Amino acid sequence: MNSSPLNIAIVAGGDSGEYEVSINSANNILSQLNKAQFDARVVVISQQDWNVYDADGSVYPINRHDFSWQPNGKVRHFDAVINSIHGTPGENGILPAYFELIGMPFTGCRSFASALTFNKYFCNQFLKQCGINISPSILIRKDQPIDINNIIEAIGLPCFIKPNNGGSSCGTSRVNHSGEILPALERALNEDREAIIEKLLVGTEVTCGLFKTGKSSDVFPITEIVSKKEFFDYEAKYTPGMSDEITPARISAETARSVQDLSSLIYDLLDCRGVVRMDYILVDKIPWFLEVNTVPGMSPHSIVPKQANISGLSLNDLFSILIEDAMTL
Q: For a FRET experiment, which of 141, 174, 204, 208 has its CA 20 to 30 Å from that of 324?
């Protein structure tokens, strides 16, 4: 990299229920970056405003034509972007497509991979065709007629109902009885125009972070997730003490390797880029894919930073690798 610090934008915020999670991730990344390497600022993006937050507390609007900004009337440009927006528009392909259009280097998946992986149902159907173990599911769109008997016949109970395009378990419900289906669908469809209904898999929940670049790759140790609620919902994910995240997972070395190898395969099948996290349920030691997080959380309590640290990578080291890769592609 250059001897002078790179101008880095850490984009955060977005327009989903994961707004605060994204802000926490961005602020933690900012605090961990080496100032000798990176002159970084958080850029908060929403439908209403795109603003740069400077170290002195000043706020400047972004020129969306070229993603520049003007402190004291002088135009400045960023060298690269760290994408830390969970949900729309950062994780569903909209913002990556914008950066691709203007030629701005950015970390994370490209627009098509982002759009595909954010749509849980279609991502699952693609991976199912590739021979990956996927829980049976059906897709429900807003205003579509709902036949509870058909849902139970196709999926069974218990099941999970969640927004098809969303994250952090916002709007997600575990449904144990037929009377809970309509309220759960209403919760999911308040978050998104589509809901996915998935058969419940009983087993051990694990997750695996990894990244690949043109120069290096690292598949992190597996984390076992033990929620103290009925499932690993928003509260369990972000409230201290509501879940145990055990790294390395309490599974055999052989099972851990199978999860890591599968994660590497899925990463390639989906044409991922940058650091991602893949979630599974182990059923009789066999991993069943749940979903891929292409913009995983980076707060102090998030899983991927902990996995990376065990692998010997600080956040600064990790993003140094990812930014360099983004700028050389």
A: 208
Residue 250, classed as helix, strand or coil, is coil
CA 303 – CA 321 distance, rounded (Å): 19
Q: Which residue has the tokens 């099941």?
A: 159
Tens of pLDDT, residues 220-245: 999 999 977 565 444 545 456 667 99
Per-residue pLDDT, 216: 87
- Which residue, of 199, 222, 245, is where some domain finishes? 199
Question: What is the average pLDDT across 2-30?
Answer: 92
- What CA–CA distances, in Å, run from 80 to 11, 22, 43, 214, 329? 11, 18, 12, 17, 12
Supply the Cα-derived Rg of the chain in whole angstroms. Answer: 20
Residue 12 lies in a domain: yes
CA distance 292 to 311: 20
Place of tokens 């699952």: 124
**Do 260 and 229 share a structural domain?**
yes
Domain match, 124 and 143 both: no
The residue type at 249: A
Beta carbons of 159 and 198 less than 8 angstroms apart: yes
Alpha carbon distance 188, 69 (integer Å):
38
* Residue 20 and residue 68 in one domain: yes
What secondary structure does DSSP assign to 190-211, as a single string? HH-SEEEEEEPPPSEEEEEEEE
Q: Where are the alpha helices (DSSP H) in the chain?
A: 19-32, 94-102, 111-118, 120-129, 148-155, 181-191, 234-238, 253-269, 303-310, 315-328
Nearest to 78 by CA among 3, 183, 7, 137: 7
> Cα–Cα distances in Å, from 311 out to 6, 190, 220, 289?
26, 39, 6, 23
Quick check: is 317 in a domain? no
Give the sign of the dihedral formed by CA 269, CA 207, CA 294, CA 139. positive
Q: Does a structural domain hold residue 321?
A: no
The pLDDT of residue 252 is above 90: yes
In which domain, by residue range, is 159 found?
137-199
Q: What is the pLDDT of residue 239?
A: 57
Model confidence pLDDT, tens digit, residues 26-76: 999 999 999 999 999 999 999 989 999 998 999 999 999 999 999 988 999
